[in-house]
Amino acid sequence: MNKLELQKTANEIRKGIVTAVHSAKAGHPGGSLSAADIYTYLYFEELNIDPKDPKKADRDRFVLSKGHTSPGYYASLANRGFFPVEDLPSFRHTGSYLQGHPDMKHIPGVDMSSGSLGQGISAAVGMAISAKLYDESYRVYTLLGDGELQEGQVWEAAMLAAHRKLDNFVAIIDNNNLQIDGAIDCVNSPYPIDKKFEAFNFHVINIDGHDFDQIDAAFKEAKATKGKPTAIIAKTIKGKDVSFMENQAAWHGTAPNDEQYAVAMADLEKVGEALCQK
Transketolase N-terminal domain: from which residue to which, for each copy (predicted)? Predict the structure, then answer.
C-alpha cells in the first residue's frame, strides 16, 4: 500500500473502533485510536500473514500486550479479512467471540490471549526465543501502552530479549502520554522511555506514530538491525481524529453515547473526505 491508502485504511479502522465501543457501551477507545496507524502498518504492510491461513507455521507473530485496546486490534483484523467487519458491533456482547480482551482460542488471527498488563511482551519474547531455537524465519511484534511500562514484568522481559540478542523481536510503545488516571508522568513516570530501553541494550527508534513515512522507515530499520531487539517508541495522540476524545484521559475506557457517536463518526467522515481530495 502507498501512504494515502494506509491513511484511508487507518481511518476505516478508527470508524470500526468507535462503532464497536459504542455498540458495546463499554471498551477502550482512546488507546485504540492512538494506535490505529501502527495497527494499520503492521497488518497491511509489515506482517507476513494470510487471513485464509491464520495459523500458517511461518507467519509473523503479533501480541497485543495492552490487551484492553482490543477494539483497534479487532478492527484491523476485520479490515484485513480475518473475519467480517460486520461482526465488530457484536464486540463485548453476550455470546460474541469478540470479547473485551483478545482470545486466541476463538478469534482468527489472534496469536496470544492478553489483557493482564506486562504479560503480553513476556509471551512475545518467548515466541521470539522459540523462533531462534528452531531456526524459524518468523518475526515477533508486540504493542505496549506507555502506562504499561510501569509494570516490572515489562523490564524482566526486555532484559531477557536483549540478553538473548533477539533481533527478530520488535516492541512498539504507544506513547500517548495518558493512562486511566491521567498523564503517565504524573501517575508514575517511565520517562525517558528511550534511554531506559537503550540501557537494556535495545536498538531504539523514536517516531511520530501518526506519520506513515516515519513508521515505514522505523520498521525497515528494525529489520536491518542485527544482534539486538528493537524498541519503536511512537509518539501518538490519545483519541486521535475524534475531536472530543483527543488528549483526554477520560476517554481511556469510556464509550460514547448516541450523540457522541454521531459526532465521532462525522469527525472521521471529514478525515476520510479530506484524504479523498489528495
Answer: 7-261
